[in-house]
Amino acid sequence: MLTPTGELVTAARARGRAVCAFNVITVEHAEAIVSGAEAAGCPVILQVSENAVRFHHGRLAPIAAAARAVAAAAHVPVALHLDHVVSAELLDQAAPNGFGSVMVDASRLAYRENVAATARAAAACHAAGLWVESELGEVGGKDGAHAPGVRTDPAQAAAYVAATGIDALAVAVGSSHAMLDRTARLDQDLIVRLREAVAVPLVLHGSSGVPDDDLTAAVRGGMVKINIGTALNTAFTGAVRATLDDRPELVDPRRYLTSARTAMAGTVTAALRLLSAGVPD
Ligand code: G3H
Ligand code: ZN
């Protein structure tokens, strides 16, 4: 069932566990994420990034409609989130397309400009009934908040949340987007200091590159929304390769997309069992 993102995040935080948000590129991603979540018995967030919208010829509506339909038929609570949004035009399309939340991404701007742009966008999104996440990295960071080595300062994070009125904060604590191996090490002390400094829930991006033990420690330390994208694509592409290596004569995409969808669902179930299911030890 389609559920507001804020409800899932609040419930996860109250349980001391995380809600995982997985990136949707194709309809098979959405189907796999929901199957994986149903197998784990956990709520889940389907998130569509501005990059994915660009892949769909710049149109949000088709992939949003697919994700919405898959979410509506699910046997677990499913939220829809629009991720890493830079374009104001795209932000305006979030609520009409059924999204319950957005991530306003002004993280490449210098601090003052990030605050001004995010506060403006957050006010507009709140007026449309959306839950708003945004991101703060290093002051003046040139490579975005999730370049390796970038860190969010707790005092600045507290000031940023107060000045922007956001509902959740994505922080830079050692993860990095699109890693193909799981070698990132998170700054666990910083996660605890950020949780103590900031009233809103914390969000971890670039989680595909983080090993299981660091992810579980991060959730114990105060991370509530865990964003996972690349791990699904690794599973998808690995399964397609293996299927076609084995059966090079196949031409019907349903044959190899079935294995891709199954592989992605397995990745989702494993992550949810680790980070979302049950109660903390
Ligand atoms: O917003 C999406 C995530 O940060 C995904 O990052 O692809 O490195 O897991 P990832
Ligand atoms: Zn991200």
- CATH-defined fold name: TIM Barrel
Major sheet, described briefly?
8 strands, parallel, barrel
Order of helices and strands: HEHEHHEHEHEHEHEHEHH
Cα-atom Rg, whole angstroms?
18 Å
pLDDT averaged over residues: 95
Structural class: alpha/beta
- Poorly predicted residue ranges: none
CATH homologous superfamily annotation: Aldolase class I
Order of strands, widest sheet = 1-2-3-4-5-6-7-8
CATH class: Alpha Beta
**Percentage of residues in helical conformation:** 40-55%
CATH architecture: Alpha-Beta Barrel
Shape field: globular
Give the strand content. Answer: 5-15%
Bound chemical compounds: glyceraldehyde-3-phosphate, zinc ion
| CA distance, first residue to last residue | 29 Å
Count, helices: 11
Q: How many structural domains are formed by the residues?
A: 1
**What is the number of E strands?**
8
Quick rundown:
The protein is of the alpha/beta class and 281 residues long. Helix content is 49%, strand content 15%. It has an eight-stranded parallel barrel with strand order 1-2-3-4-5-6-7-8, surrounded by ten helices.
Write a structural description:
The protein has helices at residues 5-15, 27-40, 50-55, 61-72, 88-94, 111-127, 154-164, 188-197, 212-221, 230-246, 253-275, and strands at residues 19-23, 44-49, 78-85, 101-104, 131-136, 168-171, 202-204, 223-228. It is of the alpha/beta class and 281 residues long. The protein has one domain: TIM Barrel (Alpha-Beta Barrel). An eight-stranded parallel barrel has the order 1-2-3-4-5-6-7-8, surrounded by ten helices. Strand 7 (202-204), helix 9 and strand 8 (223-228) form a beta-alpha-beta unit. Helix 7 runs parallel beside helix 8, helix 8 runs parallel beside helix 9 (212-221) and helix 10 runs antiparallel to helix 11 (253-275). The longest helix has 23 residues, at 253-275. The radius of gyration is 18 Å and the shape is globular. The two termini are 29 Å apart. It binds glyceraldehyde-3-phosphate and zinc ion. Zinc ion binds at residues 84, 177, 205, 227.
